[in-house]
Amino acid sequence: MNHPPDWRLYLVTDRSLIGSRNLVDVVREAVQGGVTIVQLREKSCSTREFLDLARRLLALLKPLHIPLLINDRVDIALAIGADGAHLGPSDMPYPDARRLLGPNALIGLSVQTPAQVAETQPWDVDYLGVSPIFPTPTKTDTGTPWGLDGLRSLAHHNRHPLVAIGGIHPHNAAAVIHAGAHGIAVVSAICAAPNPRTAATTLRHTIDSALST
Ligand code: TZP
Ligand code: MG
What we know:
By secondary structure, the protein is of the alpha/beta class. It has helices spanning 23-33, 47-61, 74-80, 94-101, 114-120, 147-156, 170-178, 188-191, 196-211, and strands spanning 9-12, 37-40, 68-71, 84-87, 106-111, 127-130, 162-165, 183-186. It has an eight-stranded parallel β-barrel, surrounded by seven helices. Helix 1 (23-33) runs parallel beside helix 9 (196-211). It is globular. The model has no long low-confidence stretch (mean pLDDT 97). The structure holds 4-methyl-5-hydroxyethylthiazole phosphate (TZP) and magnesium ion. The site of magnesium ion has 4 residues, from loops.
């Protein structure tokens, strides 16, 4: 990574929400609208298909200096030379992932409880994915939502950049930033939008003005 990571508008992909559109096209439009980092999240495809998609996204994003992170799969990240990985509580433990991916990889961890936040504090993780902030139909097997108050108190007991995820849309994005998030991660607000570029532009403006006030 030659550029420092910019967490402001973090797109998490979901092919089940993009209809007949091509994922690479949706991501391209989202980046044109102002997405600053992308996570490829695939829950049911084969390893071959995951690798192929990841390679195609990397070919799009690398020249634009937009980092590509791989959800769950350290092996896929390593195989294609992605910028890093995003890992949850049942994925590979952080110390093992860091050993495999090396000191320059971006590694983010999902945190769903204060105990998980505490566990991450000695580690040099690149960011925490605070999950979920609000209930969301996109992912229903979550823990109790943090809410804005939970996010605010987490921000006081944590030393890592915070990327908030879950139920975030233009109407509540500013409140999430004001509660202490460094960036906003979205799935449906961009993947399910009729125009991913416009959706990203609106979110990015909201985030940028919230960060400056
Ligand atoms: N992890 C926690 S909530 C979530 C993930 C992947 C889904 C967020 O989706 P949306 O559509 O932005 O609420
Ligand atoms: Mg995971």
